[in-house]
Amino acid sequence: xxxxxxxxxxxxxxxxxxxxxxxxxxxxxxxxxxxxxxxxxxxxxxxxxxxxxxxxxxxxxxxxxxxxxxxxxxxxxxxxxxxxxxxxxxxxxxxxxxxxxxxxxxxxxxxxxxxxxxxxxxxxxxxxxxxxxxxxxxxxxxxxxxxxxxxxxxxxxxxxxxxxxxxxxxxxxxxxxxxxxxxxxxxxxxxxxxxxxxxx
Length: 200
Fold this sequence. Notes:
The protein is of the alpha+beta class. It has one domain (about 1-195). The protein has four helices and twelve strands; from the N terminus they run αβββαββββαββαβββ.
């Protein structure tokens, strides 16, 4: 009897978790993707440039202002469609930015890898975060000029890197959900830059 009650409670908790996650996703704030371009990289392969329409909710602004680090992730995939079999994932790349506020210097810091920049205001930090330039997403040996692919891109706030109490809050609070959803377009590997949606 006790084991049966325990199983029921566990299933109920799992169902509530899924419902909270679905509700948070349904009210997710949008990140707009603009002016996406794939172009040949100097090292070979393809480099991506894009602009993101990015705005934090008042709750996120307050959180970062109190010292909480926010992590933003851009993800890219290049897929070769195949009518005779499953599509082939040719390339996959991701880049993470860490946004923090330092009370002693009153500066916002944006870090990616070993690189970082400091800004006197949150708006300036977000403007830089919203502009991705010359990000190499495809290595030279993966594609050839004239090949046709489906490309996919998105940016999101990575709530999995938040402290546990904030991860729990993010399940039911739309202020913590920030995602562009996947932008998908067709592209032919160019000898000159090509914009999202220009592939025919």
